[in-house]
Amino acid sequence: MAKQPNQIIYPMHRLWHFKNIQHPSLTLVFGRFLLVLMAYVAAGRIGMVFTYVPVNASLIWLPTGIAVAALVRWGPMMTAAIYLGAMLLELSVGTHLGRASTFAIGITLAPCVTYFILKRQQFSPYFSHRKDVIWFSIASALGMTFSATVGSLLLWNQGIIASPKLVWMSWWAGDTVGVLLAAPLLLSSSPANFAKLTSKPKELGIFALIFGSAHWFIFFSPQNQLQLTFIGMAIMIWAALRFGITGVSFTVLASSLIAAWITFHAQGPFTSSDPNTNLLLLWLYMITLAIASLLITALQNERQSAANELKDAFERINKVASRLPGLVVQYRIRPDRSSSVPYASNAIFNMFEISPEDVRHDARPLFARIDASDIETGKEHFRQAANELAPWQKEFRLRRKDGKVRWLYIDALPEAEADGGMLWHCFITDITERKQSEQDLRIAAITFESQEGIFVADGQWRILRLNHAFSRITGFATDELLGEPVLRLTTKLQDLAFFDTIDAALNQHKFWQGELWSKRKNGEIYPQMITLTAITDSNGDVSNYIGSFTDISRHKGYEEEIRNLAFYDPLTQLPNRRLLMDRLQHLISKNARNDNHSAILFIDLDNFKTLNDTRGHDAGDLLLIEAASRLQTCVRDSDTVARLGGDEFVVILEELSDIREEAIRQADRVGEKIRLLLNQPYQMLDFEHHGSGSIGVCLFQGDDNTVKDLFKRADTAMYEAKTSGRNAVKFFDPAMQAVLVVRMMLESNLRVALALEQFQLYYQVQVNSDGKLIGAEALLRWIHPDRGFIPPAEFIPLAEETGLIVPIGLWVMNTACAQLKKWEAHVDTRHLSLAVNVSAKQFKQADFVDSISGIVHLHQIDPTRLKIELTESTILDNVDDTTEKMHQLKKLGIAFSMDDFGTGYSSLAYLQRLPLNQLKIDQSFVRDLSDDENDATIVRAIISLGINLGLNVIAEGVETAEQRSFLIEHNCFAFQGYLFSKPVPIEGLQALFAQPASSRIGRATSP
């Protein structure tokens, strides 16, 4: 626009469609008025900077765009703000009031004309369609002719310009460009659009970098050429496609301002010798950018709108399809015979367990789990339907991912396509339940003609239908029983009351099952296993009865055999454990009603296993049969002889005397009779066998006993008989039970002691001939919280027997190694060694070496200070395995000592192979050194043997100075015994460490 020093224009902020104009409050109207006024004046003052000589025209007049945006956004009420802004702008540059008001009329008229044209054409400020861009451009061009005409004529009339033609063109072009650049940006500005724009920060940053670099190259670089301005068009297209109307409007405005600024300074591609050409090219550049960007944006919006409409239509169709009880599918076969599924309703997820996207371009996944035989059988009919364009139906099976098979039914109609392909419109339903119902009907029909006799009766038990098995079992033909009542045969076992219970069960539970006696046509009575079911109607009344039965005549014959197998020993035909328990429980209950005693005898055949192993199981079976026969001859008919299993028998004597002493004599006589009879020779095939029996007897009276207790007591007595040398009769003594109870309690306490760490290590010092401490032996002690000190001889054998010695031994080793680690921390004790006894059971554990190695590494001790003591029996039990384990531990530095040497049967050959460090002379030899020359000789031999084998020798049980002197005299210089110290806890051992060596020598040498 051409401008005098008294002309300016106005900006805007956020604009709205004129259709959305409401009736705002007075405060809001006033605020908008001020906003438009201030924006207009500010933008105009900035525009006056870009005056272009020689015609003094502004290259871009943005206030016109602000004015148009204000009118579109807030309506005609903004006209006054535009007029006042235009007049203030003219006055600010010194224009006379009358001339300023006249200029302001023309300037205000231009955006108003543009606004009314846009309103008439129902313009959308979002530029949703191409017609919006076209009419916006036309309206802008037409409207700006008014301001350009009025302004140029006034200037010419007043003699300010010589010719209005160039001024009019400059004025019109500047105003039009201002509308095209500013209005779209202001109309599209909103928080939502700015948020959308800033949601792509990385791309926005790259775009800004490329935008700046490209515009420097186009306008500021020495190589700037007019043709390079097309690069700006490419950047604008990028912005239109990626950043929407707001982004592209800002991009076009920024590019235009840069072009105007560089042209204003007579630089850049729009600078030539002809100023008019420069103006024309610059305006064409800016108008082209603006209109092209708006057209691209409109095309984007039209495409998005069409896509949204298509999506909405698709969703509506999909919603309808999803409500159908099946799957809607379009299946296309292309001319190259490949296939796809252009459309599938959501039911495809549940029916085929795939998504529409999985088969949109390739339909093969749809057929992956369809039964191959169903595909093969349907091909011919499918081709025929395709050729005739006829409907095609088919049932087929689909295997789901969980392995279950579902039956589906497809109804398809083909449609030929122009490219030679075929489009099938298909509807698929799941008919699994229908197929199952059909299968159930077939099964029901087959079941009715099964091997069981079946009848159907009405609510009054009149027969309506029979199957062939009924006629075969009973002998009655179908026509003989139809309409007749169901037979109810009364006997002693099934009287009328019995049938009343059946009716009651049917009324309450609608079901009854059991045995019935019935009659065949020939009069034969036979048993049947029958199931009766009552069928009710919708009112809950019984409408029918169904009965199914089998003839169990043959089964009845098996019952006795089954009973024998269940309650009798098949070899001896004696009662087995189950029947014995039942009879014994019955006897206990019976004893509650009288005062008689009874007795239970446990009998175990001595050395039966030897006979089995040497002569075979056949001979053993013959012995058991003969023994059972002999036992039965020793008792009355009222008594019971039973076989528990193996070679164990039990005899129950009933109705003994009510006087205890007499009952004992009676039971003893029977027991002795059995013992003597079992001692008689047995003629076994080709040899004669002599056997015996160990018998335990338990007497009982009343019902204050349990079967379990009686068995335990008799078993205890029998083991007492075996312990006493077999072939004996022993009565249960409460003392026996007491011993067992004490043993059981001790075992239980032993387990608790291990869990609660009630054990404690005592230490007995080992000294040399100079009285110096060279180490100690760790000895296990048990301090019970109630019983106090429990001797090792009492609990160690039990621990060995129960296997508890293994975890106990590990505890001992852990505790000993922890103590060794403490000794290593002190100069006075770090040289000491510690001996730990290891039991045979612990040493034989497969993981013994790993366990010891783990403990050594855990405590980080010097392994050369750890000494493991093993007995001769442990070492020589399995020499190869023992040697291997000892060598493995020897590699760690652990030493070995043979404990109690001389009491076993050591082989010198084995002794030479073993990686021993020390022999320990057993205290039994040391004790009698002074009185027994044999012991002295053995001690001398052991010392000599140890020296010759290169082993250290230590003597235990040294209690006198004479014993110590003898040992030193014969080259044994290490001792352990009461002469130096008893086993003491760690506190007592610390006190011994504090004593000087001389005191120990003095004590050892004193008389």
How would you describe what is shown here?
- With 1007 residues, the protein is of the alpha+beta class.
- Helix content is 54%, strand content 18%.
- It has 37 helices and 28 strands.
- Strands 20-21-23-24-25-26-27-28 form an eight-stranded mixed beta barrel, surrounded by four helices. A five-stranded antiparallel beta sheet has the order 4-3-7-6-5, sandwiched between helices. It has a five-stranded antiparallel beta sheet with strand order 9-8-12-11-10.
- Strand 10 and strand 11 (525-536) form a beta hairpin.
- The radius of gyration is 58 Å and the shape is flat.
- The relative contact order is 0.03.
- The model is unreliable at 1-21 (pLDDT under 50).
Task: Describe, in short, the structure shown.
This protein is an alpha+beta fold and 1007 residues long. The protein is built from 37 helices and 28 strands.
Tell me the helix content.
Answer: 40-55%
What general outline do the C-alpha atoms trace? flat
Q: Find the structural class using helix and strand composition.
A: alpha+beta
Distance between the termini: 139 Å
How does the SSE layout of this entry go?
Layout: H1 26-47, E1 51-52, E2 57-58, H2 63-74, H3 79-91, H4 97-120, H5 130-157, H6 164-188, H7 191-198, H8 201-220, H9 230-264, H10 275-322, E3 327-333, E4 339-344, H11 347-352, H12 356-359, H13 364-367, H14 372-388, E5 392-399, E6 405-416, E7 422-430, H15 432-448, E8 453-458, E9 463-466, H16 468-474, H17 478-481, H18 496-509, E10 511-519, E11 525-536, E12 542-551, H19 553-567, H20 577-591, E13 597-605, H21 608-615, H22 617-633, E14 640-645, E15 648-653, H23 660-679, E16 682-684, E17 687-689, E18 693-701, H24 707-723, E19 729-731, H25 734-756, E20 759-768, E21 773-784, E22 788-790, H26 792-802, H27 805-824, E23 833-837, H28 840-843, H29 848-859, E24 866-871, H30 872-877, H31 879-892, E25 895-901, H32 908-913, E26 918-921, H33 923-927, H34 933-948, E27 952-956, H35 961-969, E28 974-976, H36 986-994, H37 997-1005
Parallel strand pairs: 18-19, 21-23, 23-24, 24-25, 25-26, 26-27, 27-28
Antiparallel strand pairs: 1-2, 3-4, 3-7, 5-6, 6-7, 8-9, 8-12, 10-11, 11-12, 13-15, 13-18, 14-15, 16-17, 20-21, 20-28, 21-22
